[in-house]
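Case study B.
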Amino acid sequence: MLQETFISQKSLILGLTPRTRTLAAIIFVSVIALSNELPVLLLALGAALLLVSVAGLDFRQVGRRLLVLSGFLLLIWLILPFTYQGEIVWRISFLSVTQPGLMAATRLTLKTCSMLLIFLTLISTMSTADLAHALHSLKMPAKLVLLLLITYRYIFLIEEELQTLQRAAKVRNFKPGTTLHCYRTYAYLLGMLFVRAAERAQRVHQAMLCRAFNGRFHSLREYHNRSQDYYFLALVTIIALMMILREWKIITLPTLL
Amino acid sequence: MHKPHSAILSLQKLSFNYPNGPAIINNLDFSLEKGDRIGITAPNGNGKSTLFHLIVGLLKTSSGRIVCEGLEISKEEDFRQLRRRVGLLFQNADDQLFFPTVLEDVAFGPLNLGKSKEEALAVSHQVLQRLDLTGFADRITFKLSGGEKKLVALATVLAMEPDVLLLDEPTAGLDHNTKLRLIELLNDFTDLSYLIVSHEFDFLTATTNHIYTLENGTINVEEELHIHHHEHAHISGKQPHRHI
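Model:
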């Protein structure tokens, strides 16, 4: 089953409205994505770790998500240090590890980890429906919001269809393997899934027409900021500003960083 | 027998076929008047759903006229107006519920009709209350049971405040209790006219005043079906049983 693991967990973050959380995540992530200075990225990771601990998420679940990421990071560490040109730090027969290569890999690692942690605490603690409405209140185009909402609604049905098809194959003694027969079966299964999804899409569109749908999206939710929302956004803005100013070398961060 | 102008909905010489296909609806004449509660029964694949889709303009007729209170409906804009008054309940409720929560889904129609957020919410709550679904407003639509989905889908249709309901196999996949509840609800809708397609005779007799058959693409109004009761005797007749 598809699951939204972090929603049901009790967390201080839940006191903030989805809009505040989405906005904060957007600010953080865009600043991190565009930063390159090591102290800035360390500050970002620090802020992300602080968020995770304040939010009180289940550390094992968070660790599991980071583990998924580590495969991707490993690949980067296997390639980047050896492929950059520059001052050579270490030589292993014909391979040489360069200083800029190491720096690039470090930066990427810091960036991805802090972004993932920020998304885990701020975004994955809300349901996709909440996220859609938050984006709508942040003036995201209605069409994209509607697309997100409807995808969220029907992805479960498509998963159910897939399970039905898989069950139908299983009861007729189908065993996955590396045979042509197996690949053909999977191709048919996938094809059938697409056909069913397309047909359902048509029926859903008809149902929407029957209810006078004209392309506009109306949201019923309203978000009212409370004082903690303002405090949180102020804090996020201050940290982001510090990061930007340090990136542009206008200020220096404490010697710790 | 039906005066053409008093009818809410009148179908005149309606025909439909897919390109290069046989006629699915063939010269169909039918009219629905205010307060009519009509059942239509037909074998599978006999164009029942097609007929409903033609009425609300989801499919284009090959020939013939659809007239609503004396006005001919032909353009998409006319059908858009018609869909406010004629609500279609789909056979599969999952096709009809596309928002994560029940309340949002029910309010979708009224909001599209240009109602303000407050009005839409008021109508939605009222409809949910009428269907005894008050506690369902914040439930997640895809986590409802089949019967609950059907009732919520009905709520989304009723929130458009239609005069006519078209129900496409409303009992498909419903358990006995939900069926009974649906019968009770339909009998309470004294201000609505409706047309039900179903092949469950018991359900049709409990909810409609006339039952017709759709055969060879046309509704035969002259040959109304009547349910009648026999008395007869056979072995083990004392045990509760049914005849199909």
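The longest strand of chain B covers residues 23-32. The remaining cases will be described in the next quarterly update.
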